[in-house]
Inverse folding.
C-alpha cells in the first residue's frame, strides 16, 4: 500500500489489520505519535489526515492510501518550531511528554477548525471573540494528560492562537 | 484482530453487491467504533467493504424543503453546517456534545446511527452477553448497569444506544434512506433501531447488505427553537447518562408544538410521544413540563442502580423546555 506521510510517499507491504498508528510507528519509524489507550479514548495518537485531526489508532492504514498524513515530525524543526510547538516550549506545556505530540497535532487541527468557523459545544451564537480558555478546554477534551499539565497546555495553545 | 478481506467501493451499487456476496462482511465508514470492536474481538467481519469513496459527502436542500444529509458526511462537518445550525440547532448541539474533535472528524452520519452499545459486558469478549453471544446471558441485570436502560428493555438485554446525534434525529422525525440488494427504501429514524426483546443481537431493522445512503430532515418550523441537553459523568468527552433533545413552539404561554426525545435510556433513541401529547395545548410552565415527563416515564422500569436516570430525565426535560420557552418556575 502507498502512504503519504509528511510529504513523502512510502510503498509498504502491510497486513490489512495494521492501523495507521502502527504503520507510522512500527514500519516508518515515526515514533512521535504515541500509543496510549489504543482505543480512541486518550488522543496520544492524534495526527492530521488531509489536514484534519484524527485518532490514528482507530484508522486502518489500508483505507488511507494516497491521503496526506502529517505527524508531529512534519510540523516544525528544532530551529523553526511550529507556533503550537513554540507555545508548548514557552509555557512548559508538559511533564512526561507522552501525550505532547498528540496534544500538539490536535491543537494544530483545532486551530484550523476555529479558523473555519466551526463551533464547539460551548460556542454561543454570534460568538466571534478570541478563543477563550473554556473553548480551548472543550475543543481539546479528546486529549488526556495524566500528568495534569493542562494548566500550562491551555496558555500554550492560547499563545499559538494569537491571544 | 481476525484478518479480513478489504474491498473499497466507488459507488452505492457496487458497495451493495460486494457486501451482498459476503455474508460475514460489513461496511467500513469512519471506523471509530468498528475498528475498536474488531480490536476487542467483539466484531469479527471477514470482509470490509470500504464506503468512504462513495459520493455521499454532501448536505443538500430537498426540493420540498428540508435537508438531505449524505451518509458519509462527517459529524464535525454536519455540526458546523450553517443551515443545520440555523434551522436544526438541536442536531448541531447533539453532535458537538458527542465524542471528541478527532472522533467527529472521522465519524459519519450513517456510522453514528449504527454504532453499537457501550455496555461493558458487550465490549468484553470474555463475558456473557446476549447481544454479542445470543443465549449466553446478561450479567448487566445484576451487575454493572448504572448507565443502562430504564425504558423498553427486556430480561435478555438492558443495553442503551449511545448516540447523541440519533436522539436529535428522533426528535426531528428524520427519515433514513437505505439502498440494498432488493432496492431502496425509507425508514423513519425512530423505527431504525429495535427494542431488544428476545433477539438483542439484532440492533436495527436493516437487512444484510443494506446501506444507509442519506438521512433526510423534514422542513420543521418548530426545530428552529430547539436544544440538546446532555448529562454525563465529566464535563466533556463522555457518553451521556441521560440526555434530552427538545424543540418547542409556545405562543401566549401555551404549547402549540413540541418534539421530545431521550438519550441513554433505551435500546434506541427514545422519542417521547406520550410526553408530547401531554404537553400540546397546555400552559408552557414548569409544572406542565414535569407532568409531561412523568407521562412518558411512567413506563420506566429501572434496575437496582439506575433509577436516578428517571429523575435526571424528568429534570432535564423541565430545564430544557423552560429555557427554550422562557418559562419561569
Amino acid at each position: 500500500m502507498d502512504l503519504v506521510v509528511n510529504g513523502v510517499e512510502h510503498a509498504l507491504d502491510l497486513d490489512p489489520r495494521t492501523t495507521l498508528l502502527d504503520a507510522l510507528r512500527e514500519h516508518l519509524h515515526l515514533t512521535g505519535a504515541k500509543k496510549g489507550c489504543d482505543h480512541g479514548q486518550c488522543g496520544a495518537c492524534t495526527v492530521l489526515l488531509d489536514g484534519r485531526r484524527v485518532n490514528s489508532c482507530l484508522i486502518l492504514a489500508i483505507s488511507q492510501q494516497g491521503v496526506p498524513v502529517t505527524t508531529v515530525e512534519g510540523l516544525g524543526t528544532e530551529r523553526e518550531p511550529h507556533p503550537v510547538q513554540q507555545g508548548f516550549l514557552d509555557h512548559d506545556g508538559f511533564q512526561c511528554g507522552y501525550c505532547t505530540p498528540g496534544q500538539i497535532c490536535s491543537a494544530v487541527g483545532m486551530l484550523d477548525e476555529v479558523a473555519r468557523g466551526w463551533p464547539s459545544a460551548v460556542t454561543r451564537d454570534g460568538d466571534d471573540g478570541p478563543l477563550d480558555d473554556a473553548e480551548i478546554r472543550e475543543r481539546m477534551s479528546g486529549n488526556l494528560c495524566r500528568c495534569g499539565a493542562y494548566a500550562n497546555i491551555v496558555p500554550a495553545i492560547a499563545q499559538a492562537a494569537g491571544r | 484482530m481476525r484478518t479480513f478481506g478489504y474491498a473499497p467501493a466507488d459507488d452505492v451499487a457496487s458497495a451493495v453487491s460486494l457486501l451482498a456476496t459476503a455474508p460475514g462482511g460489513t461496511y467500513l465508514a469512519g471506523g471509530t467504533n468498528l475498528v475498536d470492536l474488531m480490536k476487542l474481538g467483539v466484531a469479527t467481519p471477514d470482509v470490509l467493504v470500504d464506503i468512504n469513496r462513495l459520493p455521499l459527502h454532501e448536505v443538500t436542500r430537498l426540493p420540498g424543503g428540508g435537508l438531505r444529509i449524505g451518509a458519509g458526511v462527517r459529524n464535525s462537518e454536519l455540526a458546523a453546517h450553517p443551515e443545520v445550525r440555523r434551522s436544526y440547532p438541536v442536531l448541531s448541539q447533539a453532535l458537538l456534545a458527542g465524542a471528541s474533535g478527532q472522533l467527529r472528524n472521522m465519524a459519519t452520519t450513517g456510522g453514528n446511527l449504527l454504532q453499537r452499545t457501550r455496555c461493558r459486558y458487550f465490549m468484553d469478549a470474555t463475558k456473557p452477553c446476549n447481544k454479542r453471544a445470543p443465549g449466553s446471558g446478561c450479567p448487566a441485570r445484576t451487575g454493572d448497569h448504572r448507565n443502562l436502560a430504564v425504558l423498553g428493555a427486556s430480561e435478555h438485554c438492558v443495553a442503551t444506544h449511545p448516540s447523541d446525534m440519533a436522539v436529535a434525529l428522533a426528535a426531528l422525525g428524520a427519515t433514513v434512506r437505505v439502498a440494498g440488494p432488493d432496492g431502496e427504501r425509507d425508514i423513519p429514524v425512530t423505527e431504525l433501531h429495535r427494542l431488544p426483546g428476545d433477539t438483542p443481537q439484532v440492533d436495527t431493522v436493516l437487512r444484510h447488505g443494506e446501506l444507509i445512503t442519506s438521512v433526510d430532515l423534514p422542513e420543521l418550523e418548530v426545530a428552529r427553537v430547539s436544544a440538546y441537553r446532555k448529562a454525563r459523568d465529566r464535563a466533556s468527552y463522555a457518553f451521556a447518562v441521560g440526555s434530552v433533545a427538545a424543540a418547542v413552539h409556545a405562543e401566549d404561554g401555551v404549547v402549540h408544538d413540541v418534539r421530545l426525545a431521550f438519550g441513554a435510556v433505551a435500546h434506541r433513541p427514545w422519542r417521547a410521544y406520550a410526553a408530547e401529547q401531554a404537553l400540546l395545548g397546555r400552559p408552557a410552565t414548569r409544572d406542565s413540563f414535569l407532568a409531561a415527563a412523568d407521562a412518558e416515564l411512567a413506563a420506566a422500569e429501572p434496575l437496582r442502580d439506575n433509577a436516578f436516570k428517571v429523575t435526571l430525565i424528568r429534570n432535564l426535560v423541565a430545564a430544557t423546555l423552560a429555557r427554550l420557552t422562557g418559562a419561569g418556575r
Notes: The two ends of chain A are 42 Å apart (CA to CA). Chain A has five helices and five strands. Residues 100-115 of chain A form the longest helix (16 residues). Chain A has two domains: 2-74, 83-160.
